[in-house]
Amino acid sequence: MTQQSGLSQGQVPPRSQASRQFLVGLGRGGAGALIFGLPMLMTMELWSLGFYIERYRLLLLLLINMPLLVVLARRIGFEQTSTWREAIRDATVAYAIAIAMSAAVLFLLGIIKLHVPATELLGKIAIQAVPASIGALLGRSQLGGHQDDGPADEEGETESEVITSYGRELFMMAIGALFLSLNVAPTEEIILISYKMTPWHALATLALSILIMHAFVYAVAFRGAHQLSRGTPRWHAFVRFTLPGYVIALAISLYVLWTFGRLDDTASTQVLMAAIVLGFPGAIGAAAARLIL
Asked: pLDDT tens, 242-253?
């Protein structure tokens, strides 16, 4: 019997397989950018913000978004990433996909035209590219990336699943809060609701946000929910994760409101009210990030 050398029939060369996985990741990234970014791409307030937002606030948002993408790519990049250099590459690719998808959709909708000033053109695309870039990376985990990107071990876990440290868990919660807050913060309804609320409404919203946030991850046993080890008291998870997570969601809400100019010339009481209102979807986004990331 002649000895077979090289690859067996039907086996894909490692380099070709890696290239194919990366191309599939790009496709998922484009789909994720479109799916997760479409609500903002079709929101009138975002079109206006791209025109009049102060450029230093927009620049700060863009600069903050890049390290967020790098950490996110380290966990769920377009392919398995083993180094920070690969994570930076995936984050850059996600940003490029988001810019291209945002520009294409805004152009097709007639929101941007070639004859408009460059500052308006770039502003509208840049502000839309932030949530779209997060969506581009989320596309890998939500559109099948974890199921086929690596071989499973004896316990059924893929190589891409890594133990998440406490600091990274909080960081992922911040990304989830930022993503969902960006979707609703530009709307007038956030400010309108905050003006209509009484202090009792605010306290009830705060309590409900914390309750839902804790229930999402620990109480109702959603798929992907974190399980407490045996013997761990219930209050431990509440104090260690839920409360810090809500504080992070509130801080993200304040930052997003400031970025969009919603806190300018506003009394401190009203600032707190607006943060609590936006903190409600922000808390849900933070909890969801722990489930899906």
From this structure: 888 899 999 999
